[in-house]
Amino acid sequence: MGKTIVITNQKGGVGKTTTASALITGLSMKGFKTLGIDLDPQGNFGFCLGADTETSPTIYDLMKGVKPAVDIIQTKNDIDIIPSNILLSGAELEFSMIGRETLLKRGLAPVKDKYDYIIIDTPPALNILTVNAYTATDALIILMIPEILSLMGISQLRETVELVKSIYNPRIEVLGILLNKYDKRRILTRDVEEMAGVIAKELHTKVFKAKIRASVAVAEFPAHEGGSLFKYAPRCNAAKDYLVFVNELIAEKGMKLHGKKR
User: How far is Cα of residue 130 from the mean position of the Cα atoms in its chain?
Assistant: First the structure.
C-alpha cells in the first residue's frame, strides 16, 4: 500500500510548494510511482510540475464529484499530477455539505493503491482544504523557516491535527519538522532550530536531520521546462539537501516500502 504525505504550515512563504515539488521529483527519480495533489488555489504545485492548470479538470472537479480521479490525473516527466486553480478558492463556502471533510479521501480511494507515494501540497491556512488533506493522509511534514513568525500558530496546527485524528483519521502522524532556508551562521537560525526541537517534542515527533539551505535556483527553476530543481541546478545546495531529505524520509519507519512498482 502506498504512503500519503502532506506538506503543511499555515504560514505562507515557508517553501511548501518547492518542498513538495522537490520531494515528489526526488522520489520519482528513485523509481517510485508518485502522485502529486495540489490543494492550493494558487495552483503553483501543479505549475512547478508542468501540469495544465487552466483548461484541464482539476482537484476542484474531483472534490465536487463531477470527475473521477482517473479523468483528472495528468502525467509529466513520469510524475502523475492532479492540479489546482483559482476555482478552489471558494471551497470553504461551497463545500458545506455533510461529510465535506472526507471529499478528498473518497475521491482518491479508487487510485490510492496504484502509487508508492502521494504528496499533497496545502494552502497557507487551516481551512476545509487543509482538513481534507489531513483526513486523507498517512503523515504530515511540518515545514518551517528560521524566522520567529514561522513558529507562530504551530499550537493551532497541533489542535487541528488532534481534532482530525480524534474524528476522521486516527492513523495520522507527524513525521517531523523540516527546516528550510537554513543558514547555520545566523544566530536566529540556531535559536529557531532550538525552539523547533521543543515544538517537535510537544508533537511527539522530531526535527529532520536534513536541513534545506537557501539557494537562488529555488526561485528560478519553476520557470524552466521540466520544473525540476534537480535538473535545473543539481549542484546547488538546496538540490543536494533535498536529496538528503528524500533518503532520510524513505528510510523512516512506516514510510519505507518493501518494493518499487515502477
Answer: 11
Asked whether the beta carbons of 6 and 122 are under 8 A apart, the reply is yes
- Of 178, 26, 193, 164, nearest to 104 by C-alpha is 164
Ordered by where they begin, the domains of the chain are 3-250 (3.40.50.300)
pTM for this one?
0.93
For the sheet with 3-8, list strands across it: 74-76, 79-82, 34-38, 117-121, 3-8, 139-144, 173-182, 207-213
Task: Give the single-character DSSP code of 58.
Answer: -
Query: Any idea which residue has 502521494 for its cell?
Result: 118
pLDDT under 50 in the chain at which residues? Answer: 259
- Taking the mean position of all CA atoms in its chain, how far away is CA 115? 16
**Which residue in this structure is represented by grid cell 482537484?**
59
| pLDDT tens digits, 36-63 | 999 999 999 999 999 998 899 999 999 9
Taken as a whole, the chain contains a residue count of 262
- Among candidates 239, 252, 173, which has minimal Cα distance to 208? 252
Say if strands 3-8 and 117-121 run parallel, antiparallel, or are unpaired.
parallel
Written as nine digits, the cell of 66 is: 463531477
Q: Strand 74-76 to strand 117-121: parallel, antiparallel, or no bridges (unpaired)?
A: unpaired
Grid coordinates of 247? 533518503
Burial of 147 (0-12, 13-18, 19+ CB in 10 A): middle
> Which run of H or E residues covers position 178?
strand 173-182
Decide the pairing of beta strands 173-182 and 34-38.
Answer: unpaired
